[in-house]
Each structure stands twice: as C-alpha cells, then as structure tokens.
C-alpha cells in the first residue's frame, strides 16, 4: 500500500482511535488509494463526512485549535507531498528501499514532531495533548542527543512516578496508588500500552481513597489522577513512536533548541515552518520549489553520503528522462539526436548496474518514438517493479503501462484493475502542479466563501484519486508521444 497512508494508519492506531473490533488496521494493505482518501476524509461529499479520521487526530493534537482544522489538514497534506518528493529522488546506493525510507524518517520525523510541539504548545493550555510531552522533553533525565542517560521508556516511567508522588492526600498514599504504580512499572519495550490501560487502575485508586478522605479531597484525587491519565496517554503515544524509531533523544535536542533560541531564519527549521505553519498567499518562493528545496536538503545529508559518485552528464540524462515522462506542461520537441544523446551519456557511466534501469526506460521511450508501441508494451510488461531502485522509475514505467494497456487492451480494462498501479505512481512520482478547468458548479460559494455542495461536485470523476491518476497518466503519455515523435511525423496516440 502507499507508505504514507500506512504511516497515517499507524498514527491513528497509536492515538488509540480505532474502535474495538475495527478490522481496518488489518485489511488496510488491500485497500485502494481512494479508500484511504475516504478513510482520512479527503472526500468532501456528504456520504464520507463521518469518515474524516484526520479530524479525529487533529482533535487530539490540537483540541484548542491553535491551528484550525483546515490548516491542520493542509499540514498533513504537505507532509505527504514532502514524503513523495523525497521518494521520487533517484538514488545510486547499495541501500535498500526500506533502508532509504528509514534513514529519511530518522532524520526528518524528529524535527517535524519537535516543530509541531513548539508551534502548538502554549503555557496556558495545561490540558492540551502536548503539555506533558513539553514538560517531559525538558527534564534533565529525558534522553537528549548522544548523552549517556537511560532510554526513553525508563525516562517516561520516572516522569509518571514523579507526577504520581506529588499527590499528597493521606498517609497511605503509597498503598492507595499501588495499582497506578503497577501499570507504570509495566511500561516495557514489548508491552505497548493503550489509552485505556490506566483506567482500571485509576478506578481502584479512587476506591482505595474513598472512605478515608473527605469529599473535597476525593475530588482533588480525581482531578490529580485525571492529570496523570492525560500524561500517560500523551507519553504512551510518544513511546509508540519510539518503538518504531528511536527518536526521543533527537526530538528533545531539537525541542530544547527551539525553546531556548526560537526558530532562526535561513535554516531548515525556518523553511519547514514557512511551508507548514506560516504560508504566505503570494510567497515569492513557489510551493513546489519550497518542498523540493527541503527534499534536496535531506537527500544531500541523508542519502548522498552513502551514494556512488555518478557523473554529471549521466545525472542530467536521468533528469531529462523524468522530464520527458512527467512534465506534461513542457511542449518542447525532443529531436532524434537529443534522444540518442541521452542514451550515449547513460551508457558512458561506469556504474552500469545502477544505471541499467534508466537505460531500460530509455529503450521503451525510444520504441514509442519510432511508433513501435506494441514492442514497447511488451517490454514494459517484463519490468519487475520490485527490482527497481528508489526514485521515479516505478511511476515512469507504470504511466506508460497504463496508457498502452488502455490502447491495446481497452476491452479487458475493468474497474479497479489499475488500483495497485495508481498507488505506486502516487508514491514515486514526486509532486506536481496541475491546472484543471472546472465548471461554475465547482466554484460557487456561500457568503462565507465555503464551496456549495452539488451533485456534480460529489459525483464527479475528479473526486476520485484513482481516476485522476489514470487520466493524468494518459495525458502524460500523449504529451510524451507528441514531444518525441514529431520528428517522425507519427500520429498522436
């Protein structure tokens, strides 16, 4: 399935938002990208309003609406764009695709989390989700960078125990709070606790206090235990991240730096803030340019040190192939000489094992340029996507495959047949800006500028990610054919 969608399912589950018995987490791998959109609430039609699960995550993260729900959904969307931009970068390394994903995650996720805490947390919001995470990350015993302190789990235990011991209600506190301490002691690497884990122990604690303290004190006990419950929930979510990626020490380093020094202009944190939290309507830096700049920053620092030294001419040819496939806004004709020159430069590169997949893509494009589309289709069908390196290659081959299958096997193309292809295209193509003409029915608004619901808007093909991607694949193919076949005077596909 689409990796970013999978990540968001993990986030949703980490927050304990799946209802008991919900099998969505188990079957998510078989779902289409459109169903992921419906689940997270990207579809605006009324049939899917109850499925806006992104809003449930937002309701936990930012219940005080420091950023509006609309702004938060835009932030999630930009996270996804950034992921796609990173994964579309060609890489020339012995690292596997999974190793590349993990390296990117280890470097960018801690900064994104630290930034979100810094931009969202307000001192006056003692009940907000980030309150106890803020307090925890600033504690001396919280692991920070490369210090020698114990791991995140033991630090969380210490924080929760300290919070519990601050409650002074009677001389029998230790005994009365024993059920609570038992749960805290049970925080271990192999024991993932949930939001509800503490509830039974809190009930037992309240029962223990009942009868030995007055009503006012008992109410204070309830308030204090509720505060501990909130701390346990927030830090349990943080530990769920730690179990996936050991990043608490990195988050704490970034966060302490933000608290002490703020966001300094001109660095990567400032660029991320500008993209995610402080977008300007008429920013002189284009949105796509900003995302690509951030992706370049991380590629340079995370992947390039483990990459082979590929000559510049070869890299330019690889970029040219990407432009031929994906840039349907570019109408520049590619001459036979230019197309041949791309192959010559690719074949000059000594690291042939890493360049061969790009040569195979060039061969397919060359066949299409000569009008040998059936041969191109047969060749594309032999390409194993699992053997391709990280980067745009999988999307490029699939775009051509979809277009040629529609051309040659139109009668056999059934609903849903391209679902897996769409997922791979979306994950590996990078980001793009496309302008789609729409009728007035799409743009009519209420007095508050919200879009008026319409049958056209809710039923249109444009509301489905699979259909949009298939249509766009055909558009890209047709534009490619026009650009590379003009000198052969071939008819457009």
State the gist of this model.
The chain is an all-alpha fold.
Assembly level? single chain
Distance between the termini: 31 Å
The run of helices and strands is HHHHHHHHHHHHHHHHHHHHHHHH
Question: How many domain regions?
Answer: 3
The number of helices is 24
Runs with pLDDT <50, length 5+? 45-51, 453-462, 489-493
| Average pLDDT level | 84
Strand proportion = under 5%
Roughly what percent helix?
A: 55-70%
Gross morphology is elongated
| Radius of gyration, whole Å | 27 Å
Beta strands, count: 0
Structural class: mainly alpha
Largest sheet, strands/sense/barrel: none
Can you characterise this structure?
- This protein is mostly helical.
- It has 3 domains: 3-127 and 263-276, no CATH class; 131-249, no CATH class; 310-488, no CATH class.
- Helices cover 61% and strands 0% of the residues.
- It contains 24 helices and no strands.
- The chain is elongated.
- The two termini are 31 Å apart.
- The relative contact order is 0.11.
- Mean pLDDT is 84; it is low at 45-51, 453-462 and 489-493.
Topology record:
Elements: H1 3-14, H2 24-27, H3 33-40, H4 53-61, H5 69-87, H6 97-120, H7 131-137, H8 152-165, H9 173-176, H10 178-185, H11 199-209, H12 215-244, H13 248-261, H14 268-276, H15 287-303, H16 312-326, H17 336-348, H18 352-369, H19 373-381, H20 393-408, H21 419-428, H22 440-443, H23 455-459, H24 465-485
């Amino acid at each position: 399935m689409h990796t970013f969608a999978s990540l968001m399912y993990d986030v949703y589950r980490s927050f304990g938002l799946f209802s008991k018995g919900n099998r969505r987490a188990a079957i998510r791998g078989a779902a289409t990208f459109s169903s992921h959109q419906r689940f997270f609430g990207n579809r605006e039609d009324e049939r899917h309003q109850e499925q806006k699960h992104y809003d449930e995550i937002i309701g936990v993260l930012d219940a005080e609406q420091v950023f509006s729900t609309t702004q938060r959904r835009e932030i999630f969307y930009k996270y996804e764009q950034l992921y796609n931009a990173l994964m579309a970068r060609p890489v020339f390394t012995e690292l596997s695709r999974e190793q590349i994903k993990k390296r990117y995650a280890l470097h960018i996720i801690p900064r994104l989390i630290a930034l979100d805490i810094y931009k969202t947390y307000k001192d006056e919001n003692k009940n907000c989700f980030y309150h106890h995470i803020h307090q925890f990350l600033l504690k001396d015993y919280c692991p920070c960078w490369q210090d020698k302190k114990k791991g995140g789990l033991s630090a969380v235990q210490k924080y929760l125990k300290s919070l519990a011991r601050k409650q002074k209600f009677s001389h029998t506190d230790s005994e009365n709070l024993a059920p609570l301490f038992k749960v805290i002691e049970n925080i271990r690497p192999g024991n993932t606790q949930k939001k509800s884990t503490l509830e039974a122990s809190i009930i037992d604690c309240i029962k223990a206090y009942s009868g030995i303290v007055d009503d006012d004190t008992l109410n204070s006990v309830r308030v204090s235990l509720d505060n501990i419950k909130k701390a346990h929930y927030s830090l349990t979510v943080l530990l769920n991240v730690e179990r996936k990626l050991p990043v608490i020490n990195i988050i704490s380093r970034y966060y302490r730096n933000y608290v002490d020094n703020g966001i300094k202009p001109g660095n990567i944190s400032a660029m991320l803030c500008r993209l995610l939290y402080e977008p300007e309507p008429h920013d002189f830096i284009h949105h796509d340019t900003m995302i690509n700049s951030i992706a370049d920053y991380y590629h340079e620092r995370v992947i390039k040190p483990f990459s082979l030294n590929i000559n510049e001419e070869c890299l330019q040819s690889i970029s040219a192939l990407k432009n031929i496939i994906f840039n349907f806004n570019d109408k520049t004709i590619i001459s036979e000489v230019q197309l041949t020159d791309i192959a010559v430069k690719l074949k000059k590169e000594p690291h042939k094992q890493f360049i061969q997949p790009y040569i195979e893509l060039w061969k397919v494009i060359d066949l299409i340029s000569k009008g040998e589309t059936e041969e191109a289709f047969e060749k594309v069908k032999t390409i194993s996507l699992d053997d391709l390196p990280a980067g745009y290659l999988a999307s490029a081959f699939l775009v051509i495959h979809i277009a040629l299958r529609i051309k040659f096997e139109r009668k056999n193309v059934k609903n849903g047949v391209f679902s897996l292809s769409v997922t791979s295209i979306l994950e590996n193509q990078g980001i793009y800006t496309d302008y789609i003409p729409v009728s007035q029915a799409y743009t009519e608004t209420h007095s508050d500028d919200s879009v008026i619901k319409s049958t056209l808007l809710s039923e249109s093909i444009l509301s489905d990610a699979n259909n949009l991607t298939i249509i766009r694949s055909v558009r890209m193919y047709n534009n490619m054919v026009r650009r590379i076949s003009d000198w052969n005077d071939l008819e457009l596909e």
